[in-house]
Structure formats: structure tokens, C-alpha cells
Amino acid sequence: MKIELTTMTIQSAHEALVRGDFTSRALTEAVLEVIAAKNPEINAFAEVFDDALAQADAADARLARGERAPLLGIPLAIKDNMLFIGHKASSGSKILEGYVSPYTSTAVERLLKAGAIIVGRTNMDEFAMGSSSETCAYGVVKNPLDVSRVPGGSSGGSAAAVAMDSVLGSLGSDTGGSIRQPAALCGIVGLKPTYGAVSRYGLMAMGSSLDQIGPFARTVDDVEALFSVIAGKDPLDGTSIEDEDKPYVLPKHSYRIGVPESFVNMEGVDDDVRERFSSMIEMLKNAGHTIVPIEMPTLPLALAIYYILMPAEVSSNLARFDGVRFGLRKEGAKLLDTYMQTRGEGFGAEVRRRILLGTYVLSAGYYDAYYNKAVLVRRKLTDEFKAILKDVDLIATPTSPSPAFKIGEKTADPLKMYLEDIFTVSANITGVPGISVPNGTVVRDGKDLPVGIQFMADHFHEPYLFGIGKDVERLSK
Ligand code: GLN
User: Fold this and answer.
1) Fewer Cβ atoms within 10 A, N terminus or C terminus of the chain?
2) Domain with 40 in it: what CATH number?
3) Which residues are catalytic?
């Protein structure tokens, strides 16, 4: 049977593997061929692992023994900031060039146990800082739908890998939108799980109180399948939540959907992106959901809070890259010179900018003015979410204010780049889950470019996100 990767989903591949239409080896070979053909231009992959086919053979042996699991034999990719023992991981940074993982992250371990094939690692903004995959030390990632444009970021490689019809799914990490925004810009589905739902063990930290690993795939069903494999309590991550402490949540038939209207209507959101959003909300209403206009006065502050808390955590997390413990070392006359030369040469401009910002907001003279205030407003925003989510099941917004932008368009102006995260950061600040689902296209330079719709729900209410996501898929057909 011919392997048609342009339309294949994890679900359909699983059924075909079980029927014996093709083997995991044949499927993986087909994926590797696509990567060989397209990656030189797209640059989604930093590396294709040389044991991919050996993994596929092991999966075929498990299939032949009658083992059945949704991911058994399915080729996937992981972001370059996740450890996989014996394989390189560089977080898109020169400072970790050649670094080899000494152990495997829990999320990747769970994929492997489930029988997935980890084909390779994907390019990303350096240490996950960016919205365009342009700060990657190993070259810019291009959007497979229009190679003059960015795929979004920071998990742009993981999104592009799926969108270029190679792997059937991938993992990204999301600290302020890095799964949902690239999913939107590449026309696929991306989930940022509830904080504590997926173990961060073996994920290189950016902002530890914000980071979550989550899946990308073509369909909501596939994202759900990936999430159910990687989620769960992990004793190796103290912030992962015990399964018995999570609410038992089932999807509903119809939802109360809150729309923060003044926020969605603010300046800076492209008119046609807003129109796509409104027309989907209208369709959801006609399909039987209840639309509730909501006011969330603290929501516009989310971006400001994020750009104080995140750099503060970044400055602390990245202190470990000192030329002594990991990766690059630029020997100086004194130890301090070694630190300064290693970090000066190893880190790119965006990473250095954030370390500087972070140390500034944490410094004795400014701690109360910035960091402490941001912590207080974070609490206020979380309370606001909690209160609203007692009344509505879901909060809906566009995923990002514009479709994929041109490579280079926003690099000169970091503030413009930071605005990309306006709709996504609040889920990380409050810890709630968020999903981006494709919601049609808008035209730029005569090309159809995808946009996403985002839904957020209360902590551990991912089933609601999958439920509404499938409705959006049905209505978009
Ligand atoms: N684009 C955001 C930033 O630059 C989010 C990054 C992320 O989620 N890793 O910080």
C-alpha cells in the first residue's frame, strides 16, 4: 500500500499498521525520505537520529507479537530542548553545541515506552526564547506553507516538521505560547497542557513556573492521543500533580464559551484575523454552544507580567551554563574571564537581553518595583481566571494577532515580537491549559495563510479543549 503522508494522521497510521498495510519501518523510511527532500530548505530538523530505523524495527517486532497501542510504530519528533539519552540536545544554542543527553526526559521516555519512533530533534528559538524560530543558532526555520515566512516559535521546528508532511506528530514546549502560536501559523493543532500535567523532568528549563511540554499534530484526536501518553504524575518532577488530586472531567455536549470582547477587539489584532475568530464563534453558537461576553480587566496586563517573571526565571535557570558544567568553554586567564567569555560567545543576543532584564528586575533596588508587583498581579489574574471559569467552561480568543509574518519582519523590534504572545501568555501565568485549533485562512500577498483559534479551560480540563476542538474541526470542514 502506498504511504500517503500528506493526509495521514496518527490514528489512520495506527489502523494501517495494525491491519498490516505497511510496517513501521516502511512508514519511517517514507518519513525520512520527506525529511531528506524538504529539510534542506525548511530546516525543521536539527538532526535526524541514526537509530530511527532500529526503533522502527523494534516497534514492528512488538506489533508482530500482537501488541496494540495508539503510538506503537508512529514516527514523531522532539524539540531540541528535551533530553533523550545518548542523543544530542542543544536547545538551539551554540553554548550546548555537541552536548549529549546523559538521561532521557520523562515525556520522551513515555513516548518510547508507548512504542513511538523518535525520528529526530527539531530546531527552535535559542532556549525557547522567541516567536519566530529566528533566534536559533542553527539557522532560521521556514514555514512549509510559505517559505518566505516564519513558522512561529519557539517550537517552530516541531510545528514545521508536522506541517511539511514528515512526522505525524511532535513535542514542543510552551512557556508563553511556543506550542500554540506555531501551531496556528502552520495550520495544525497544538496543546499547552495544565501546569503540572506533564513532567518537566529532562526539559531544559526556561521559566520553570511557566514551562510545559505538549503535543503538535494534524488533528485534535491525535493531540489527545499524544497527551494521554505523556501526561501523568512523575516522582522526578515535584511540580507534577498526583493523578488522584486531579478532577475527573468528561467532555460536554455543549459549552458555555466566554469571549473577552474588549481584549479581542484591542488594537494590533489584524482585522481579518478577528473576523475569522468572530465567524467561528458565530458558528459555535449556531451549533448549540452558549456564547458569553466576559470582562477580564487584568488580562491586558498578562504580557507585562510575563516579560518580568519569565526573564527573572531565565536569568536564574541559565546561570548553570558557565563553561564549567555543560557544553562550550572559552578558557580565560581567570575563572571570571572564562564565565564571561563562554557566556558572551555561547549565548545569542535575545538570550543575553533576557538575562539582563531578569537580573535587573531581581536586583535589590528594583525587586519590589518589578518582580514583586508582577507576582502580585499574577495572583490577581489567576483569581480572575478562577472566578470566570466558575461561570463559563471555556475562554476563547484568536491564538495570535496575525498570520505567519515574513522572515526578518519583526527581528529588529523585540517589542513587536513580544506582542505575538498577547493571547497565549495568560495560560502559562495562571497554569491553565490552552489549545490552538486551525480556523481557516486569511490572504497575504495572494497566499492563503492559516490562523488559529485558542480555547482555555480550568486546570486539568483538557477534555473540554479536545471536545470543543473537535467541534471546530467539524465546523471547518
Ligand atoms: N514567544 C514567547 C517568548 O519569546 C514564548 C516562548 C515560549 O513559550 N517558549 O518568550
Assistant:
1) C
2) 3.90.1300.10
3) 79, 154, 178
